[in-house]
Design goal:
single chain, 186 residues, Four Helix Bundle (Hemerythrin (Met), subunit A), 7 helices
């Protein structure tokens, strides 16, 4: 089984392959598609990441191999009863501005993924889910000024991160209540 890639490795691979989405946005889109559709096809997700999914292009092929690992790991995490789900973002060594931008991209990808996964605007959603989706639309507009990152800023980021993380699990549970162990792609 192909495992979850390193954030920087996937970011580099997607950049070299001229992907339409960055790493965090790609993961957000996958999570949105999983929440909306339950089990989206890998190729459908890849088609959203690359303008033209050319299997003969070595750069796209290399990035796709990393994406398969992210796909498998994410499906497993979202359905894990131990709540091990993690957003795919830069690690804590990166600047708060970079992590905030990645979280905003992640939320943008998530809301896109909900629509790409088939969630219709006119669908009646549970109140918690509707509120969380509205909040993610707002978080997608977030930014952070470069400069001194205070402990208060770091704490705020971590609270928003945890809110989004737990929100995704709630949305997934409300939209896909019957979880079965995911099939793993080789």
């Amino acid at each position: 089984m192909i495992s979850r890639p390193d954030y920087n490795s996937l970011t580099d691979a997607l950049g070299k392959a001229d992907a339409e989405l960055v790493a965090s946005e790609s993961h957000g889109a996958l999570c949105g598609m999983l929440c909306a559709a339950g089990k989206p096809e890998l190729n459908l997700w890849l088609d959203h990441i690359f303008e033209e999914f050319d299997v003969n292009n070595m750069l796209i092929k290399e990035a796709s191999q990393l994406l398969v690992g992210l796909y498998n790991d994410t499906r497993e995490q979202l359905n894990d009863s131990d709540v091990n789900f993690q957003l795919f973002l830069p690690d804590d060594r990166e600047s708060l501005a970079q992590r905030t931008e990645a979280l905003a991209s992640w939320c943008q990808g998530f809301t896109f993924g909900l629509a790409a996964g088939g969630l219709k605007k006119d669908r009646k959603l549970p109140n918690d889910t509707a509120e969380l989706i509205r909040d993610m639309v707002e978080i997608a507009r977030a930014g952070h000024d470069l400069g001194d990152d205070s402990d208060e800023d770091e704490d705020s980021f971590m609270q928003i991160y945890e809110y989004v993380r737990m929100g995704v699990l709630l949305i997934n549970e409300e939209l896909q209540p019957s979880h079965k162990p995911p099939e793993v792609l080789q």
